[in-house]
């Protein structure tokens, strides 16, 4: 092609005029043979005034494209914009995956072919590094999920401990994914994967809240058992029963701790368990202190039956020998060579009757039976006690009599109810009913005394006793007396076994207040 310049302006006189752009000749890159040398020649003037030719050769410069490695987003694909941004080149217009090729799917580094289109419409195929990490990050995701599933399934962890542990797992998984993205070789990706599996599995998921709470319960049990062992006033049987009560309370507390789901629930179950163990407060059965009774030689105060078993059952295992003796000091301080043991024949007979009646009962509240068994054990212990005094004997005999009266009254009530007779027909003798209620009140006072702590139940029991003893209740509806009996039976059951009772002390107090108000 030829160009000429006139008046400072260039023009094409021969060839393709489109290559002229201002004062520059622009040759299309795609139309050039990159190995061809381009030569130019220029002259000035014309004809005889034409200057000599000035020549110069040009070599087409090498075209270089720099690329940035592409990383496939986790569970996504790169976009055309991602491809174009990966190419460091001027006058680029668009980029796409070369026709006939596809993206690799296996983990690692790959070379992919892109087709780049320039602003002048020319195109060029270039190679780009393409990094796939889907499988690597998927492995990390699965490791994290498995660890978090195990945490959720661990019932020894509280909700707060589970959340803290899962947050640590997520943190380790996040660091592992960043390490995969930062890796520049396949070996680097593999190392990031392996480190992730190790670090995720090593996240500490040891429970602390529940084991620590149980440890406190165990400490409380040890303290309670030591106190029981140091109580020299208790028999071996009483110690065993007390320790069993402590163990039952501890087991119940630990079960509540296991079932707790939050730190607050664990603390509540622990505190309730420790309080339950504190409330057991085991006490030895009543053993009255010896009150020596003098035995004059003139026979004026003879031992009526001290050497005789009036019921004729000399072979019973619970009756101590009537000839058992031990030295005691007299109340007046004067020693005597003649000593006596108390006459237990009446108590022995009453205990046997109580034992027999307990075996033959039908339809009596289990709560009354359980309370009566406590008194039966006290009576049997009194029979075995060679140091039992007159005062102790009198007290124990009264208790056993009250228990018997209670059972008789309860059984009579059951029998009368079975006959379905009405009050107008005299379905239940008034005296029997009142006697039954008074006997239940006696049981109640006995059980209250064993608790060794003050309670409004004691006050209400005494008031009820006074009303029944002193008041004229002949006109009281039998149904009301049945309500009184039911309230007293529930109170006896509660005090006999507070831990397993379906009622609370406050409920029973309100019930007794209600029936007392009606009786008055």
What does this entry look like structurally?
Residues 296-316 have a biased composition (Low complexity). It holds the Pfam family DUF1542. Residues 221-344, 408-427 are annotated as: Disordered. The chain crosses the membrane at residues 428-449. Residues 259-281 have a biased composition (Polar residues). It is rod-shaped, with a radius of gyration of 52 Å. Strand 1 and strand 2 form a beta hairpin. The protein has helices spanning 80-85, 134-152, 159-182, 186-201, 209-230, 236-259, 263-280, 345-360, 366-384, 390-419, 430-451, 456-470, 478-496, 505-519; strands at 2-6, 9-14, 20-21, 24-25, 37-42, 54-59, 66-67, 70-71, 87-88, 92-97, 108-118, 123-132. The protein is of the alpha+beta class. The model is unreliable at 288-339 and 418-428 (pLDDT under 50). A 4-stranded mixed β-sheet has the order 8-12-11-10. It has 5 domains: 2-59, no CATH class; 65-133, Immunoglobulin-like, CATH 2.60.40; 136-202, no CATH class; 208-279; 345-409 and 428-519, no CATH class. It is built from 14 helices and 12 strands. Helix 2 (134-152) packs antiparallel against helix 3. Helix content is 51%, strand content 12%.
Radius of gyration: 52 Å
Shape: rod-shaped
Number of helices, counting only DSSP H or I runs of 4 residues or more = 14
The largest sheet is: 4 strands, mixed
Helix-strand string: EEEEEEEEHEEEEHHHHHHHHHHHHH
What percentage of the residues does DSSP assign to strands (E)?
A: 5-15%
What topology, given as strand order, has the largest sheet?
8-12-11-10
Structural domains: how many: 5
Low-confidence stretches: 288-339, 418-428
Give the structural class: alpha+beta
Determine the mean pLDDT.
75
Number of strand elements: 12
């Amino acid at each position: 092609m030829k160009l000429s310049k006139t008046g400072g302006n260039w023009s094409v006189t021969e060839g393709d005029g489109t290559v002229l752009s201002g004062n520059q000749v622009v040759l299309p890159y795609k139309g050039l043979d990159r190995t061809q040398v381009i030569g130019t020649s220029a002259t000035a003037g014309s004809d005889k005034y034409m200057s000599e030719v000035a020549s110069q050769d040009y070599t087409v410069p090498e075209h270089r494209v720099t690329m940035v490695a592409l990383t496939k987003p986790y569970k996504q694909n790169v976009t055309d914009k991602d491809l174009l941004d990966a190419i460091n080149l001027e006058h680029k217009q668009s980029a796409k995956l070369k026709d006939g090729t596809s993206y690799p799917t296996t983990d690692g580094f790959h070379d992919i072919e892109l087709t780049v289109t320039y602003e002048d419409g020319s195109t060029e195929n270039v190679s780009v590094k393409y990094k796939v990490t889907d499988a690597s990050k998927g492995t990390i995701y699965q490791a994290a999920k498995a660890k978090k599933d195990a945490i959720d399934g661990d019932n020894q962890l509280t909700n707060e401990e589970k959340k803290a542990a899962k947050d640590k797992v997520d943190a380790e998984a996040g660091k592992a994914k960043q390490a995969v993205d930062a890796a520049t070789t396949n070996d680097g990706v593999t190392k990031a994967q392996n480190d992730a599996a190790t670090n995720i599995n090593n996240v500490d998921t040891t429970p602390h809240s529940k084991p620590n709470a149980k440890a406190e319960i165990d400490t409380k049990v040890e303290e309670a058992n030591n106190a029981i062992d140091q109580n020299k006033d208790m028999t071996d049987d009483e110690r065993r029963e007390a320790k069993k009560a402590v163990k039952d309370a501890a087991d119940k507390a630990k079960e509540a701790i296991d079932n707790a789901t939050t730190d607050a629930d664990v603390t509540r179950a622990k505190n309730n368990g420790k309080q339950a163990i504190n409330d057991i407060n085991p006490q030895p059965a009543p053993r009255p202190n010896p009150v020596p009774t003098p035995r004059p030689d003139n026979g004026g105060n003879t031992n009526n039956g001290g050497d005789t078993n009036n019921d004729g059952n000399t072979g019973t295992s619970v009756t101590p020998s009537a000839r058992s003796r031990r030295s005691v000091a007299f109340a007046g301080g004067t020693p005597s060579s003649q000593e006596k043991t108390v006459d237990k024949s009446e108590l022995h007979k009453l205990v046997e009757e109580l034992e027999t009646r307990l075996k033959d009962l039908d339809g009596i509240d289990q709560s009354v039976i359980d309370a009566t068994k406590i008194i039966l054990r006290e009576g049997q212990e009194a029979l075995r006690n060679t140091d039992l005094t007159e005062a102790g004997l009198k007290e124990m005999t009264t208790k056993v009599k009250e228990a018997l009266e209670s059972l008789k009254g309860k059984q009579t009530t059951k029998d009368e109810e079975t006959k379905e007779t009405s009050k107008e027909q005299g379905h239940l003798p008034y005296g029997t009913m009142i006697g039954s209620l008074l006997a239940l009140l006696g049981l109640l006072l006995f059980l209250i005394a064993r608790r060794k702590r003050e309670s409004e139940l004691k006050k209400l029991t005494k008031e009820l006793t006074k009303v029944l003893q002193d008041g004229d209740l002949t006109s009281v509806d039998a149904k009301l007396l049945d309500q009184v009996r039911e309230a007293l039976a529930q109170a006896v059951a509660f005090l006999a076994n507070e831990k397993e009772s379906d009622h609370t002390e406050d409920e029973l107090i309100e019930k007794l207040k209600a029936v007392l108000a009606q009786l008055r």
